[in-house]
Design a protein that fits this description.
With 253 residues, the protein is of the alpha/beta class. Helix content is 28%, strand content 17%. The protein starts with 18 loop residues before the first strand and ends in a 6-residue tail after the last helix.
Length: 253
């Protein structure tokens, strides 16, 4: 079922802002080009995840401080990575990590990695988010919260976050994926798709899938999971300039 976004009057929207949600590069010392590239004027970024050491780390990292500062000075929203571990990590641990991200890196919100999807886990996740938003209220708004499910969760999760990652995986699965019908009740700005292992020649097709399924935040890369420890998000895709040029003109500020 295609996703058709509409206004309250039933008129289809034509001004959806497609942009990138960057799930996190390698450490700035290992990926200096990647972090610098994100501050290029005109790059259509919705947010960038900062993951220092599977979280904020034990002490402020000067290289990450610099990278986050340059992004925020460029007007880019920076999100601290909180590993929820499918509900296994305790409330106190997550809030402690959030405090460090805010104190050290002045983040604008949080990306909840490995967020659970089932209905039974929702109350605890919602409790965590309520606390996170309270911590973020010193900023210009209540911050930005993204749930990194990687698949379609129980629909009630949409009430707790600003955005849901409803697909994270390889192009071989994405090109044949199906959208959950309940997502049509929400605008495209609420959903994000992260796709790895996508060849250059399929950019247009992938953008069509995202539009058809109603996701306005995307990240596509030709990097792959070359082993169990490999992270396809650590480096820029080989076609970064091309995809920026294709997505960029469609962004209205």
């Amino acid at each position: 079922m295609p996703h058709l976004s509409s206004t309250a009057t039933g008129v289809a929207q034509t001004d959806v802002r497609v942009g990138f949600g960057v799930p996190g590069f390698a450490h700035p010392l290992l990926a200096p080009t990647e972090w610098t590239e994100l501050t290029r004027p005109g790059t259509p970024l919705h947010w960038v995840v900062l993951n220092v050491d599977n979280g904020p780390g034990d002490r402020p990292d000067p290289h990450c401080l610099d990278a986050a500062g340059r992004l925020r000075n460029a007007g880019v929203r920076v999100l601290g990575h909180l590993d929820v571990t499918y509900g296994a990590r305790g409330f106190g641990e997550l809030v402690s990590d959030a405090h460090r991200y805010l104190d050290w890196y002045l983040v604008d919100g949080f990306f909840l990695g490995r967020c659970p999807t089932e209905r039974a886990a929702l109350p605890e996740v919602a409790r965590t988010v309520t606390t996170l938003r309270a911590l973020l209220r010193d900023g210009p708004d209540d911050g930005h919260i993204v749930f990194g499910h990687g698949t379609h969760p129980y629909p009630g999760y949409a009430d707790a976050a600003d955005q849901l990652v409803t697909f994270a995986g390889p192009w071989s699965a994405y090109r044949w994926s199906q959208v959950a019908e309940w997502t049509a009740d929400h605008p495209p700005e609420r959903f994000c798709h992260l796709v790895h292992g996508m060849p250059r020649g399929h950019l247009d097709e992938a953008l069509r899938v995202a539009r058809w399924q109603g996701a306005s935040t995307i990240y596509f890369t030709d990097r792959t999971e070359a082993g169990r420890a490999a992270d396809p998000w650590e480096a820029l895709p080989g076609y970064w300039d091309e995809i920026v040029s294709r997505v960029g003109p469609g962004v209205s500020e």
